[in-house]
Amino acid sequence: MEENLSAFLTEKEKIISDELVQKVKSLSIPSRLKDSMLYSIKAGGKRLRPLLMIASCESFHGTYQQVLSVSLALEMVHTYSLIHDDLPAMDDDHYRRGQPTNHRVFDEATAILAGDALLTYSFEAITDDPQLTNEQKVYIIKRLAKASGPKGMVAGQSLDMAAENREITLTELEEIHDLKTGELLTFALEIGAYIGGASIKQIAEIRKYAYYVGLIFQVQDDILDVSGDPEKIGKPIGSDESNMKSTYPKLLGLDGAIKKKEEYVDLAEAALIKADVKTNILKDFVQYLSLRDA
Amino acid sequence: MEENLSAFLTEKEKIISDELVQKVKSLSIPSRLKDSMLYSIKAGGKRLRPLLMIASCESFHGTYQQVLSVSLALEMVHTYSLIHDDLPAMDDDHYRRGQPTNHRVFDEATAILAGDALLTYSFEAITDDPQLTNEQKVYIIKRLAKASGPKGMVAGQSLDMAAENREITLTELEEIHDLKTGELLTFALEIGAYIGGASIKQIAEIRKYAYYVGLIFQVQDDILDVSGDPEKIGKPIGSDESNMKSTYPKLLGLDGAIKKKEEYVDLAEAALIKADVKTNILKDFVQYLSLRDA
Questions:
Q1: In the prediction, which pLDDT does A121 show?
Q2: Mutation site, A93, A154, A157, A178, interface B, largest B CB count within 10 A
Q3: How far apart are CA B289 and CA B294, in angstroms?
Q4: C-alpha closest to that of A228 among A210, A244, A247
Q5: What molecular function does GO assign, one term (chains A, B) (predicted)?
Q6: Of A21, A56, B137, B287, which one is least surrounded by beta carbons within 10 A?
Q7: ipTM
Q8: CB-CB under 8 Å, B121 with A119
Q9: What is the 8-class DSSP label of residue A180?
Q10: Terminus-to-terminus CA distance in chain B, angstroms?
């Protein structure tokens, strides 16, 4: 990994995680509800969405402080989606990132409510940000609700569940991924650019970049599932296969999936050149996501 | 019921229901998700929250058209809360308003997603309202998120679940009701007054009125559960008792509960006089809620 990116990730990941925990801890709410929210917030992960938002903001004329609150709201929405997706009625996952899932540590009712709470509070948090104008708040809330609601992430999860146990085409697969994970990644990058002072034309290029970043992320996820190190990825090899999930390697073969990913890397980098960014950080991010081993 | 209120309820309930169905129908989203959202939206009910918002707006200098979109967003949030509350992991209800609950007609995963979708879309709908300024939108979203999230309705549901199967005091009971249903009723009345042009002092009185209206609603619910007509209330008499729920009649006796309700009616009416409203509609609403048989 590029040294600059590595330093950026280490520094900003700590800020994001500390602030997130602080924000949820400071809420005056029932203790069991708070414990359940905090459990999943603390479970961590890569904080990819807030990091992309900050990187995008800094790629224009912005500072991380300008988007920090919005990036935390975004991570809350992402965390809510993981809690609900893991529920027995949904993907019925017992572990996430090596730790028992929320509903197994607490109970299903509490997990459902913790998800509902994180989603709802994320919108309140955006309205409370003293650095944003009302115009910016309304635009950001509109985009976040669209990206995460029935036209975005919720649609993706709904289609994903309907697609289990049946063969789907590459086009269908990519539509599901775009809705389920791509929309929030696009939100992250677009809003970072918007607050960072990018022009409308630059934002349009960043949206293209975001689209390919989402696909690169997913292709690599599927590749790791068949050829990764189970210790590093935190789940056994071939779990998609046994879950009857459609994946890139299944549809294109492992070599075909790797080739597809390289095409997307080229397309993401081309969009970035057109966006005329002032640092290399988003370019390094593409390499990092494409070559990650976990 | 007062003739004016009766005409108001009939006319506005139809507008609200028609517009709500239209709004959800027009979404370009996966069909199963949309069907599930529409099922609960169509299941209807009294549309009490939108009606109170409109009544409050018209009690000052506003028209129903000014708050219609926000009132629909509010009803979506209320509908999401019913879908999630009915889930097997929560209250495990098989019927609502005489019809099978959402997760029994569809499935649990779809019901969870339909709830998530309605909640998220409600915020997008507010940002789309062309009649509101950005300042109004931000204020309304902030209040809605607070009233429905972990400091409001979600806290109430969380405390309510923790209170099952144990004795609680009247103070605890009222705190739970205030969070679980009172917060959204207060949002309805407060935002109606705000958009209707009420002064800060008038809004403060409307908030007091709203607090008592919420309690009156709840006391009457509990009274109907022990002395209502099962055909009209749509559930057997004594179901709270068999669910081990704390209620007003249980804590105060039936006569004590009726007396308590009358105290609250007086307090609601006193707040209304101080709010200096220009019509009788909110006063008639108190009588209607206090004396309803369903």
A1: 98
A2: A154
A3: 10
A4: A247
A5: (2E,6E)-farnesyl diphosphate synthase activity
A6: A21
A7: 0.96
A8: no
A9: I
A10: 13
With CA atoms as reference, report the closest residue to B208 among B282, B279, B125.
Answer: B282
Helix (H) / strand (E) element for A100: namely strand A99-100
- Angle formed at CA A173 by CA A165 and CA A123, multiple of 5 degrees: 105
Contacts of A94 by beta carbon, 8 Å cutoff, 6+ apart? A100, A101, A104
DSSP state of B99: E
List the single best residue of B35, B118, B124 to mutate versus A (max A Cβ within 10 A).
B124
Distance from the A139 Cα atom to the nearest Cα atom in chain B, whole angstroms = 8
- Gap from B267 CA to chain A (nearest CA, Å): 28
Contact between A27 and B121 using a beta-carbon 8 Å cutoff? no
Beta bridge partners of A95: A100
SS3 of residue A229 by DSSP: coil
- The pLDDT tens digits for B92-122 are 999 998 899 999 999 999 999 999 999 999 9
Contacts of B112 in chain A (CB under 8 A): 84, 87, 89-90, 112
Give mean pLDDT, residues B258-262. 97
B29: closest CA of chain A, how far (Å): 6
Residue ranges in chain A whose pLDDT is less than 70: 1, 242-243
Contact residues on chain B for A180, CB-CB shorter than 8 A? none
Q: Would you state the structure tokens that stand for residue A137, as one six-digit string? A: 């708040």
Query: What is the average pLDDT score of chain B?
Result: 94
**Number of structural domains in chain B:** 1
Domain that holds residue A54: 3-291
Residue of B nearest to A157 (CA): B113
CA Rg value for chain A: 18
Which pLDDT value is given to residue B145? Answer: 98
Cα-based distances in Å from B228 to B141, B224, B254 = 37, 4, 12
For the record, the structure tokens of B188 come out as 């309805």
How far, rounded to the nearest angstrom, does the alpha carbon of residue B185 sit from its chain's CA centroid? 5
The CATH number for B272's domain is 1.10.600.10
DSSP notation for B178-239: IIIIIHHHHHHHHHHHHHTT--HHHHHHHHHHHHHHHHHHHHHHHHHHHHS-HHHHTS-TTH
